[in-house]
Amino acid sequence: MSDPRTTPSIFTRGAVDLGALRPASKPAPAGPAGPAASPAAPANPGGAPPVVIDVTEANFQTTVLELSMTTPVILDFWAEWCEPCKQLSPVLEKLAAEGGGSWVLGKVDVDANPRLAQALRVQGIPMVIAVVGGQLVEGFTGVLPETQIRQYVDAVLKAGGVEVAAPEDPRLDAADDAMMTGDLDAAEAAYRKILAESPQDHAAESGLAQVELYRRVTGVDAEKALARAAADPDDLEAQQLAADIEVLSGQAPEAYERLVAAVRRSSGDERDSVRKHLLSLFTVAGPDDSAVASARRALARALF
């Protein structure tokens, strides 16, 4: 299993034959015929099906494939040792609870279920994909802002024929959809149009900063980039690229700390370049992020 820090891409693509994960059919036991029961998640003691379930290689057929015929299932691939997973999972669990059963969150421990992770082409964690009607819906790797995770959930629900609330700003929804599908040019154009009309739109600012971030890491070998930064702390270009990778891997506080340290070690135009790069990463997270507030204070101390 790849370390999440070496997996900067947020998009998961490629066909996966989910049929291969179905166990061979078994003859039905003899007995009186009756109506077939609809697949559902295991019931809670109170009778209502849970919105968060543990998925294993043994129960994948019933808890994911069969359930997905009636209810979208979003899979969260995690491991106990994965720190970014501990940031993403609570957000997914909160959204599942808010969904009230409109979708189910399936949690997959990749260490306990390596064959399942391999079959679904899990290259890094945390990774999120969905299954709707027995078909795979592409997802993302790493930790995204909650607003984007909500948009992904809405897209999954729409794919499953579930009615979702209309977005507050259709322009922003269209821009976010373009970014989630990897059309960065369309996303950039849409965000810039919003900002031309509403210069103080923080969501559009964040979206545009994310587009620029994804472009900077496209085609980058994350493992080599991180090694280069570790080998030479004074290589400011390497430090900035490593920070980009860390942000996309859900390690934003570490990225901020890295660049604050680079600000302390630099001066003149180089220092200003690092400072601006750090500010762009703050914009990705948004103005209300607690880690950003702490990092801004650290940056101020480093500058003055």
Automatic annotation (TrEMBL):
The lineage of its organism: Bacteria, Bacillati, Actinomycetota, Actinomycetes, Micromonosporales. The keyword Electron transport applies. Keywords: Disulfide bond, Electron transport, Redox-active center, Transport. Residues 1-45 are annotated as: Disordered. The keyword Disulfide bond applies. GO terms for biological process: cell redox homeostasis; response to stress. It comes from the Bacteria. Residues 1-10 have a biased composition (Polar residues). InterPro entries: Thioredoxin-like_sf, Thioredoxin_CS, Thioredoxin_domain, TPR-like_helical_dom_sf. This is Co-chaperone YbbN. Belongs to the thioredoxin family. It comes from Actinoplanes nipponensis. GO terms for cellular component: cytosol. Residues 23-45 have a biased composition (Low complexity). One of its GO terms (molecular function) is protein-disulfide reductase activity. Gene3D superfamilies: Glutaredoxin, Tetratricopeptide repeat domain. Residues 22-158 form the Thioredoxin domain.
